[in-house]
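Listing S7. Sequence submitted for prediction.
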Amino acid sequence: MKVKKLLAAGLAAAMMLGTLAGCGGGKENSGGNTGGEDSKSQEASAETKESEKESGGETASGEIVNLKWVTIGNGMPTNYDTWITKVNDYIGEKIGVNLEMEVIPWGDWDNRRNIIISTNEPYDIIFGNGNNYLADINLGAYYDITDMLDANMPGLNELMPAKYWDAVKVKDRIYGVPTYKDSSISNYSIWDKELVDEYSLDVASMTELASMTETFETLKADKNDYPVYVKNDGLYYIFDVYDQIGGGTQILGVRYDDADGKVCFTLEEPDIYAQLEILHDWYKKGIINPDASALSEGRVYNMWRVAQGWESAGITVWGPQMGKEVVVQKLGDTILSNETVRGSLNMVSINTKYPEKCLQFLDMVNTDTKLRDMFYYGEEGVNFEYNADGKAHKINEEWAMAGYTQGSFFTVTQIDTDEFDQWGEIKALNEAAVSSAMLGFNLDTSAITDQLANCREIWLRYRSEVMTGVQDPAVAVPQIKEELMNAGWQDVMDEAQRQVDEFLGK
């Protein structure tokens, strides 16, 4: 059952009763069209909420309203009851909100979240990302918050640059609140420092795959191991320079710095094709592990690998994960796109009684450091404490929530083990990011739904072997293209180009 149908029935009943039912207290992707939500439902909802305000509802002095927030993590914290009591004492006094949370484990997320949305289960705020954002907007699941931001989110508006709001717009309307964090893409080479020192490697000069071949040949011969050990998605980062424009597949895109907006079959583009040739060469030379295309998981140790993040993550994340000291080197520009920002969003339910309170709460959890720390680190005195320098000291690693889902990194208190300003580094990357020429563009797939779905499936059949170097691109790319064309690829390209041209005012 679609949400629109559920909403329509619920709204009709609500109008008869004079109240709106709400919560008393919810990389290949699916894409989706951008027709926007049901405007009549939005208008009816607004009328009903205005009636509630007039009768005392949300604006009643001193009233505490109940909100439910559905998000993802390692499941519900063991000390949830005592933690949420402290949270509610704080936010109740500040903004008149009493919060209930449902923290869904990663493995259960897709199924549980789909049930919540499709059955119209009550919630007020829900986490999501680009995989479902457009589709859920088309179902009418989320509240249009565009005209409410200035009044209810002044703190986040001041903290977050306007272009991040642009990245979540659909037909110039906003339905999601980005969690302002590492909201741009920066790719880094990660090298085992022992090897860098042993071979006196000039990693700063190796920022392209072609420049690494000779080093990898030497390491392969000397160490009898695979210098490039990857799983079945291979070196997918090579596609990051192409904005996927809402098509939900790596093979369709516009290069981020192309102001003319040429829609590409990326496998045929010279920069991508050349790197596919290198991967195939590495595979033949035994630089890449022979079982790569069949692996769903990588390994802990790597002589070299690529990851998205920031430089100091080599100290805080990548090195500890590998059990080695590492050297990192940035690869290419930092890029800001719809996809990078939509990696972490929180949406307000169309059925909430309290949209303003939802936004006030999200503003506070993004900008109030005390509250932000409570969500990021857990319960003070149980999960963390502040030291004499005002830094956060973790008492244990038992906090189950995922910090990236909640709000900005830039109001979180620095951890006492950091000897550097990690949050400042990330913020600087964001501020220096190059915006994709397609920022704010959303492909309406309604006219090409079947063709696009069929073409995605074709690419998925080939992707692992192409991206791990198993297949020769001279053979694979023409074969893939032939199958794509038989499945309607030209229709996809033409329609995408038409919409991009319209977006750019051509």
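Caption to Listing S7: primary sequence and predicted structure tokens for the chain studied. The two ends are 40 Å apart (CA to CA). The longest strand covers residues 326-336.
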